[in-house]
Amino acid sequence: MTDPWVALEPGADPAERVRVLRRAHERFTEAGTVPRPVRAVVADSWRRSARAGVGPDGTASVELTDGDLGAYRAEHPLAQVMPLFRELMGTFASDGSHLLAVCDAHGRLLWVEGHEATRRKAGRMNFVPGARWSESAVGTNAPGTAVALNHPVQVFAAEHFIRRVQPWTCAAAPVHDPRTGRVLGAVDITGGDGLAHPHSLGFVQAVARAAESHLALLAPRHPRACGPELTALGRDEALLTTDGHRIRLSRRHSEILLLLSRHPEGLTGEELQCALYEDESVTPVTLRAELARLRQVLGPGVLASRPYRLTVPLESDVTAVERQLAAGAVTTALTAYPGPLLPASQAPAVVRLRRRLADGLRAALIARRDPDLLADWAHAPWGEDDLDVWQALAAAHPTAAIRARLAALEAELAAPGDWAHA
């Protein structure tokens, strides 16, 4: 079976594929429909790009320069693995007229290194450190799409959404925090058509895994025994880290642990049932069965009853962001926020908490008026339609691209559904 994340199947003619893709791209930009030969991952990305207001003749914006860029890179976790990236990919990039690029979790390029002439050529389309290459800013591209989907991906030639990027081919893989599983950014190889080979995607995947292993070795050893931690932001199913092990929880178990972590005094069965279920016809037997299964996952002695409560403190990434917001550390809070809380959950108490956390964070960003922080939110999947944030961003940093996106968003919200049938 053909790997859907690889751009060209074995034996495909690259020149012919470029011609087909260009015709498909023109058809999409003119009529909003995607012809069948286009890969599903690319077609979906084109649709997201269009909904985000990206134009096919746009360009990337450079957001960080000079001292601001240097300070941001120095503090970023991926700075610790740049020597490894250079060791594994530097020679390959330079000898093959390619570029090694590393972006953060918001698609902002941190490092772009490699063949000098290729780097100068890439600079003409702002493929440079400090430029935002998120999918919502410049459309389909390997580093931006890899971060958006949290999956390694290859993007070939006219699969790129913006026309000036279509002479290029790239492959990128996300890099995760080995302790929490949070996306830190992506590592990318960019160059010519030769990178459309499946080996280039496997190569960046292997490099990303090596980086995660290296980060795990660099993780500080705490002198005290760490208690269990729950990672629930930006995930439909939470991760429980305990005794050095990571357990992926079901959605319902994620909801239960999250709610119990916020009520150390415990919750009665009736309180927990109201917090979890919209449907009043759900019986207490259903909840008791879920709790029995959760006890098996947690092990003996962790989940007590009458009332239901945890016998050990459980730290969560939600409370970490809340503490940072309360302390006024808006930049740190945004960095620690990889996305909405259990976004697929419909549990009433989780929905309220999700909204309260997001509203608190976005309100702090708007009040701060920092264009970089506002852009991080606006270009994230959860912020691409956030009119208030885009208005604040346009006021703080009124570039042509930002004003155009704001105008497109205002028009879309006034007449919704224009792209719904794309």
Automatic annotation (TrEMBL):
It comes from Streptomyces cadmiisoli. It comes from the Bacteria. It holds the Pfam family GAF. InterPro entries: GAF (IPR003018), GAF-like_dom_sf (IPR029016), OmpR/PhoB-type_DNA-bd (IPR001867). Residues 244-310 form the OmpR/PhoB-type domain. Keywords: DNA-binding. GO terms for biological process: phosphorelay signal transduction system; regulation of DNA-templated transcription. One of its GO terms (molecular function) is DNA binding. This is GAF domain-containing protein.
